[in-house]
Design goal:
The chain has 390 residues and is an alpha/beta fold. It has two domains: 154 residues, Creatine Amidinohydrolase, Chain A, domain 1 (3-Layer(aba) Sandwich), CATH 3.40.350.10; 222 residues, Alpha-Beta Complex (Creatine Amidinohydrolase). Helices cover 33% and strands 22% of the residues. The chain has ten helices and 15 strands. The strands form three sheets. Strands 4-3-2-1-5-6 form a six-stranded mixed beta sheet, sandwiched between helices. It has a five-stranded antiparallel beta sheet with strand order 11-10-12-13-14. A hairpin with a 4-residue loop joins strand 12 and strand 13. Helix 9 packs antiparallel against helix 10. It is globular.
Length: 390
Amino acid sequence: MLGTFSIPSHEYHERALKAGKILLREKLDALIVNSNEADYANARYFSGFWPLFERCGVAIAPSGKAALMVGPESKEFGIDRSHIDQVFVLKEYREGADPAYPELKADTYHDVFKAIGVTGKKLRIGVASYLDTSVVIMQGIKDAFPEAEIVRADKIMVELRSIKSVNEINCLREGYRIAELASQQVIKEIKPGMTELQMVGVAQRVVYENGAEYEGLPMYVFSEASTRHAISRSSYRVFQKGDIVQLNLSAKIDGYSAAIGYPVILGKLEGKRRDVVLFGREAHFWTQKQVKAGVPASDIAKKFYQYYCDNGFKDNFVYGPLHGTGMIEVEAPWVETSSDYLLQPNMTYQVDTFISADTFGVRWEKGIAVTESGCDVLSPEIGELYELEF
């Protein structure tokens, strides 16, 4: 049934209460998280609101009281969609075209803080989404509270969002199911003479028809040389027989973004190209077997790199082996050689195995949740090498 999977309203309230307890522990008087249309996660995490064109933010007090801050054109939108009752309109959250709104009597950060019970001048204010907080928003906070200490507080959001609830995991699992439906439909329809963007269109149709609210990421279908791009966009390139085609398709369910990736061959894969692609698959499943609660993240990353070296693929290494996933397809925490934490139950990751050669690259990618004994694969299992005949 479409729309079955969602985050219930009470869970948003519980998140704000948890954040408030962390503020007390960190001796912060308030937390402000800011979001935009592309990187919406932190504000949506507390409010359920996903801005369009304009920006938005959420302010939270140690008591757990919260308020949503939106731009001048988003007031009714915010009231209708937010799980936070208090909604304020601040010019700092206006769209990038920078309209003046000369007739608007806007709210202020003082109004917001008063509503959530935060008073005083010499405050310690945590700001999360630090990299996505615009200069205008940051200056607005400083102008409103010139005596305040502004503290970067991204670690609070990592702490809150890293370990997922049952509802969050269910949303992700449904997203992976839909993403695989889209992948299989592309495999049915793809053929030489079609373009990368035509296949993205096929995937988009399936994703929306099966209940996703949006793509989990800008879906891409790459081929040949562009498969070397770790990040890129699909093009009008026409497929040729023998091409390596990389699928990375996705679905978003109530704010949670699930993506699946694997290569499809328009013909038979042979020689060195076959060796590289199949080693990537081996490394993918090797990584999956390393995941277990209590394992140091850095150990997995160090052994992953050594696995490439030991098997003669050091020069094909790009990054890996896992990154956090949830509201954003790529989110903290990463699993890297410099990581300093232990895996915990219900942390969710993409097993993201990208391997690159001189003229092509491939990615094997799926979602998992950490368990006490290993991991729960949230997506339909991947691993088949599709070699299509024409």
